[in-house]
Amino acid sequence: MMQSSGQEENVMSSGVSELPTFGINYGMVANDLPTPADVVTLLQTIRVSKTRLYDADSSVLRTFTNTGISFIVGVRNEELHLLGNASNAFRWVKENVYAHLPDIHISAIVVGNEIFSTNDTALMRQVLPAMQNIHLALSLFNIDHDIIVSTAHSFSIITTSYPPSSGQFDPAIATVYMKPMLNFLSKIGAPFFINVYPFFPYKENPTLIPLEYALFQPNAGIQDAVTNLHYTNMFDAQLDAVYFAMAALGYHNITLLVSETGWPSAGDENEIGATIQNAKIYHENLIKHISSWHGTPYRPGSNIEVYLFALFNEDMKPGPLSERNYGLFKPDGTMVYEFKFFDQPNASASFVSLGLSTMLLSFILSVAYIMHFT
To answer: 358 CB contacts (<8 Å, ≥6 apart)?
Structure first.
């Protein structure tokens, strides 16, 4: 996660279901997190059946065998240099993906995270070859039509975003890196993964950007004078800026997947807006907004898959205080704040037999009562 510049699924056999298009990021840069087995129960209780790992930890994946919970797995940035070799990519897919099938559903592989917001051009050059070799390996296993290959981007790669129709990629990466990558994504039918945080532009410009605009609350919004499209929230404006940036390079039909979005419940003194109240409002309104199936002003009716950031507060993350406070839950399994999430009737009826630790028992009881989506 980096500061910015400016399939619908049916009920699984395990009984886990979710609102269409939503998942959650399962980061583990923290002390004393619940065991993966307890995380399985937590996700089942809040009725989330999609999650994203930042690596392909086999011990975690094995714990989720036959749970009905699907995964986006990741290639770590430091692994990319190895995957420029097709044999290494084949071995990576065999060991980290194919070995878990079909008992674990893996929906996508994210090859590197937010690399094009760094200054590491050597690392940037490794991304597309690694993506191509991973996709080739998937095709050799005949699973390339089942598993997406992409890479995740910080919104900071969009250097012009207001109004949304002016959306452009950073000129330093647009032609050299983004255009070849978009060409590849277009050929394989994969979405463009983007991390979207309205919190960042609000924090940087709280006097210019109304908090209501960032939190999906009623506000006057903005009018894009070029397209005459009206925007009532920052989230839609940011997504459309990415759509317009891709269109500027000649790619009009690539879809977006929001690989991260969230709002911190605490921050440093200068991190205006990082509060429990605002985090609660953002998540609840985001779920309502996406679940309306309205799409964005530029792409009305589009179904965008969204992964919330994050499942837990991660106390070992570097950077400002906010970086350690994006979780919906604390590492001990208790909720950071009460929030309306996915509808889960009778969720309390099945958790006792799942062998939960005492640590999570009391919180599950309360979650089963208060967590519902309206």
So the answer is: none
pLDDT score, position 332? 86
303 CB-near residues (< 8 Å, 6+ apart): 8, 20, 21, 293, 295
**Active-site hit among 79, 114, 271, 314:** 114
Per-residue pLDDT reduced to its tens digit, 73-92: 999 999 999 999 999 999 99
The three-state secondary structure class of 126 is helix
Query: Cα 165 to the chain's mean position, in Å?
Result: 24
pLDDT at 341: 65
Q: Structure tokens of 250?
A: 């000649």
Active site (annotated) includes residue 260: yes
Which residues, given as ranges, of the chain have pLDDT below 50? 3-19, 344-374
Catalytic position from the list 260, 271, 305, 323: 260
* Closest alpha carbon to 262 in 287, 245, 244, 243: 287
